Amino acid sequence: MMGTGPFAVPTFRALVESRHTVAALVTQPPRSGPGRHRHAENPMRSFAQSQGIPVLEPAQIKHPDSIAAVAALHPDLIVVAAYGQILPKRLLGVPRLGGINLHASLLPKYRGAAPVNWAIFHGETRTGVTVIEMLPELDAGPILGSTEVEILPRETALDLEERLARLGAPLVLEILDRLVAGTVDRRPQDPSLVTLAPKLQKSDGLVDWSRSAREIVDQIRAMQPWPSAFTFWFHGDEPPRRLILRDAEAVACESNEAPGTVLVAENSRLEIATGKGALRIERLQPAGKQVMTAPEFLRGQSIAPGDRFDAEPDAAPTDALPR
C-alpha cells in the first residue's frame, strides 16, 4: 500500500482486514510547508504501526534505492491512494499485477492533487471515485471501475473527501478481486474530457468579488480546510484587515453597488455585493481570532454599509484558476 493522507486510510484498513496480505506501507516522510504542520501525525503510519506492518518512508520514490526497497518485498500489486509522488515506470514494473490508484474524481475530470477542492470550486453537483491502472503519466491510466455520488449543497471539501474515502475502499477490494480472477475490464480515458486539479496555492483562497455569490459560496466550501477563502476589509482610513470566510449563502439582490461593497451590516445580517446577487456571510474569522458568527462579528466591529471587501492594494495578481 502506498498512501499518506487521510483519504487513503479507509482503503488501507479494508486491505488489512481482507484476505490479502499487506507487505508494507510506503508513505511520505514528515514534511513542512504551506498547509502542513511540522510534527503533524501521519494517519497511515500510525495505523500501520498499530498493525505491525513495516513502514517505508522514501523521500524520493523514483530513487533506485527506493525502488529496490519495494522490490525486496516481492509484491504482487501496488495499491496507491493519496500518496503524493508520481510512480516511475520502473517501479510500476516490479509487481506482476502492476499498480492501481484510487482517485477522488470521476476521471478523466480533475486529474491532479486536489480533485475534491476543484470539483466543488467549479460548482459540480456530482463526483465520485475512480480506480485506474497506473501509468507513469499523472492519473492517465485506463479506468478499472468507478462509483458516482451527489455533492451535497453545503458540503465542504473536507466533508466530501471523507465521504469519498469511505466510498473508495470497497471499490478497491472489488477491483482487486477482479484482477486476481483475471476478469477486470479496462476502459481508456477520453483525452477530450480531461480537466486538471492542480495542487492548491494560498492565492486560490482570495475571493474575487466580481464572481457571482453562488460561485463564492462554492469557493468557501472548496478551500476548506486549506488555504481557506479570504478577503480584506477596508474601513475608512484604517489599514485593511484580513478576514477568513467560513460559511455563507447566496441571496437574491439587485444593487448598483460595486462588487465587494458592504450592503447590509446590522442586526444579524452581513451582506456583500458580488458580480451577481449578494453574499450573506454566516461565519467568519478575523486574523488572529476565533471563528465567529456574523452577529458576533457585528457586535464587536464598526463595519458599516459602504465599506469594501477586496484584495490588498499591493497584492500580486493571482494565476488563472484551472478550468
Helix-strand layout with pairing:
Elements: E1 2-3, H1 9-17, E2 25-26, H2 43-50, E3 55-56, H3 64-71, E4 78-81, H4 89-92, E5 99-103, H5 115-121, E6 126-133, E7 143-150, H6 157-181, H7 213-222, E8 229-234, E9 241-251, E10 262-266, E11 269-273, E12 278-286, E13 292-293, H8 294-300, E14 308-310
Parallel strand pairs: 1-4, 2-3, 4-5
Antiparallel strand pairs: 5-6, 6-7, 8-9, 8-14, 9-12, 10-11, 11-12, 12-13
Average per-residue pLDDT, rounded, comes to 94
Determine Rg (CA atoms, Å): 23 Å
- Tertiary shape: elongated
Largest sheet: 7 strands, antiparallel
Low-pLDDT sequence parts: 316-320
Bin the strand percentage.
15-25%
Estimate the helix proportion, in percent: 10-25%
Describe the structure.
- With 323 residues, the chain is α+β, with helices and mostly antiparallel strands.
- It folds into two domains: 2-193, Rossmann fold; 202-310, Roll (Methionyl-tRNA Fmet Formyltransferase, Chain A, domain 2), CATH 3.10.25.
- It contains eight helices and 14 strands.
- The protein has helices at 9-17, 43-50, 64-71, 89-92, 115-121, 157-181, 213-222, 294-300, and strands spanning 2-3, 25-26, 55-56, 78-81, 99-103, 126-133, 143-150, 229-234, 241-251, 262-266, 269-273, 278-286, 292-293, 308-310.
- The strands form three sheets. Strands 8, 9, 10, 11, 12, 13 and 14 form a seven-stranded antiparallel beta sheet that branches. A five-stranded mixed beta sheet has the order 1-4-5-6-7. A two-stranded parallel sheet has the order 2-3.
- Helix 1 runs parallel beside helix 6 and helix 5 (115-121) runs antiparallel to helix 7.
- The longest helix has 25 residues, at 157-181.
- It is elongated.
- The two termini are 32 Å apart.
- Residues 316-320 have low confidence and may be disordered.
